[in-house]
Here is the input.
Amino acid sequence: MRNTALIDKALAAAVSGERIAGLVASAADEHGVVYESAFGRRNVSQPQRMTTDSVFRIASMTKAITATAAMQLTEQGKLSLDQPAREVLPFLAETKVLLGFDANGMPILRAPRGQITLRNLLTHTAGFVYDTWNEEMNRYAQLTDLPAARTGKLAALTAPLNFDPGERWEYGINIDIAGRMVEVASGLDLETYMQRHIFAPLGMTDTSFIQRPDWDNRLTTVHARQQDGSLEPIALPPGANPDREFFPGGGGLFSTASDYLRFLRALMNDGELDGNRILKPETVALMGQNHMGDLDVQPMRSQMPRLSNDVELFPGMKKKWGLSFLTNTEAGPAGRSAGSLAWAGLNNTYYWLDPVKKVAGVFMTQVLPFADPTVLDALDSFEKAVYDSIR
Here is the structure.
């Protein structure tokens, strides 16, 4: 017997006192959706209530969908996990490793020792990093006016590596490059590809890189956490840059909790939902495995406190990376099994997929900086209540 009152109580507490402006949370087990509800408001300064069809900027939750697109093309033989990525994207032959800066403050670069592969990209072991969490790349980007990947400018993908391919793990623009590989290998831009081969088959009708006019009354507002803990609404530009040269597969999608849960349910059901298959069962199983060997996921130290706090999910636990998910090597404190798949988006949106207990959850807020302690506490409360309610 499911007791969703436990979940309602946890989420109502999360938004009390406007510590979180509003949220939408949903969960499913192998039989279907077990919970979906909205709490609070879309904008802390306006009266409109949050609704379950509210549209969120899901940022890096885009990555798992881009990886799914890449694995579809791998199934078709149009991409390969271990071929040199430069065979698909010739500009990668020019990619260098940033060693530091000389006495005049100029970058010191050298050729990489090894080839970048799609497997490297999907596991964040290629050497590409984000300036948000890497001091040297932050300095390099400012020095060279390197555009961010979210701009959709191809110049963003010419960033140097911070280490040799396969040497270690560091979060970066890897999935943007994997998404560009999908565009080149398929002959379609990423928006068109995803609509045809993922969103339409799964009935994800409110997911897109392009902000739609019919979302105007459902779009949530991003808030900045202030020093005193209060929330200040932020005015953001609309979706994908109209002057883009590619769609950034590392971030940039708009979606709803219910749409994203449909994606997770398809993965939980071995790549199929409601009779529509997006991946083979063996591909889904492969994506959840450890693809970084003896390497471990490392803490992320913020260089941009306005955008992100320091990040270490499951502190003290060894964590691995699949294609392309964080996987916990031990059972999580709130209920998820070892080997569960998870990740998040910069604006404090989160998901997990537990392939052992067959439970998936989506938790959507819109708060900066990332890894907001208040939101993480609420996420834990939600996860625990989900597992307690379906036992």
Q: What stands out?
A: The longest strand covers residues 32-40. The chain has two domains: 5-57+208-390, 74-184. The chain has nine helices and 16 strands. The mean pLDDT is 96.
